[in-house]
Amino acid sequence: MTRLAHTIIRRRRLLIALWIAMTAFGAFSTGQLADRWYQELSIPGYSAYEANQRSVQALGNGRVGPFVAVQRAEGDITKIDGVGEAFERATAATPGARVSSYFSTGDEAYLSQDRRVAFAEIFPPGQPSFEGVNLEPTRNALNAAAPAGVETHVTGIDGLYAEAAGGEQAGPSVLVETIIGGLARW
Q1: Which residues, at least 6 apart from 174, have a Cβ–Cβ distance to it below 8 Å?
Q2: Pick the CATH number of 66-164 from 3.40.1000, 3.30.70, 3.30.1450, 3.40.50
Q3: Does 85 have pLDDT greater than 90?
């Protein structure tokens, strides 16, 4: 062990240069491979995958997780005029999206037990990506179309990721963080 430590200390500049070269190669490789990254979690051939593929073909979307539009009122939300139309307007803000809600299905699963809250799942078109999707057009349309006195929110997996990131969509890259860490250790 002592001999290895002395060898490393004698050749530290070579090892540092090698470390920097490997980091640069890793950064270059990542840039080249990022567009080829397969982001599907489904396994072709399984019944759930095949059923999802038939749904995507029939409906035109369903690969991206849905936005969840929520409206809350003081009374029975199903009795307030314009709530269903607000969900439709929020859906229209994302061209090619489809909506599923109490107002489109009649299913009470989209309502809270006290009927003060209604939610809709808005399925945007496209493919899932690491960048996520922009919820702002949907949020703005829902806010503008909601009846007076109705509180609105838009969430979903992408909304939760954005909130967890503090609203930031990008931070320092892994390369920058590695260099900072390496300089701190040196």
Answers
A1: 30
A2: 3.30.70
A3: yes
